[in-house]
Amino acid sequence: MERSKLSLKWLEVFQAVARHGSVRAASAELGVSVSTVSHHLACLEQALDARLIDHNKRPMSLTPEGDAFLRRVDEALWLLRKGVAEVWSGNLTSLARVLRIAHVEDFDTDVAPTLVDRLSRAMPAAEFSMLSRPSHEIFDLLQSEQVDIGIASLTEHGISGLAEKPVLRDPFLLVTPTTLKKPPTDSGQLLSLGADLPLLRYSRQQLIGRQIEAQLHRLEIRLPWRMAFESTHAILSMVAAGRGWTITTALNYARAQRYHDGIRLTPFPGKAFSRQISVFQRDDLPNGIHDMLATILRGAVQRLIVEPTVARHPWLTGTFCQLPEKAELAPRTDSDRM
To answer: Is the N-terminal amide bond of 59 cis, ω within 30° of 0?
Structure first.
């Protein structure tokens, strides 16, 4: 059999350029110079005697030959990474690689430092890169292979090609100013509240915003759209100032302690609903990493977030809690599974 003249580096560079449509973006991802990327691409096209990328278009696009070749390259590199993962699976202590993890912003302060500290002690030969992003951006990073592991809220339809370990059930709750005498106790009263104070919404571009809007739609609650934000801290600061009310989760509430004295947390009036925080991993990584990370994360979340929050609000017992590994998909309502 004739030996292949193709370089693995050429294939990785071609895959990165095809994914980003840019030599510069590919060079940034791979940590090499733009000239190196261009050189590897030229060598690959010369070896195949075929033009794979149309360099005249911005972003760059694949030629028909390049499109067909990319499908095979994706398959081959995935199999290679899977094989390496199987070799490494029994010896994580000597695993020498960069492990790239993206997590929801609610874990910035306490959970993420605890997580990376424990992982670094368990995997002393590895390097760690921690990113803080909204859930929808974390899934984009996973699918573009810019991170290896994501800690995020499960999407509306799930994500294929990723192994998942559920970690936390995070219920949606009502947050009102402490100056409000009587918070709503049923969904019909939300309409009256909305007439007096604006609902401070999350952006529809965020997964949490879409989840809340979907539940309001199911309950046929129509409220004026006046203000939307991407930051929980911005929303809760306005609630604490008496400028409006909001719907958020127990996790988001727990991480905004500076506003707790000015806001009141109550169950969502009407049919309860929740989101699910899970650890997602590409399936070309050793399973042992996924298991270890999920175990450490569960312990840190329970000790640093769940227990203090439930101690302050005992009515959250059983709803703001850890999830078994085989939990049902979320988001869905807790009361009627709609």
So the answer is: yes
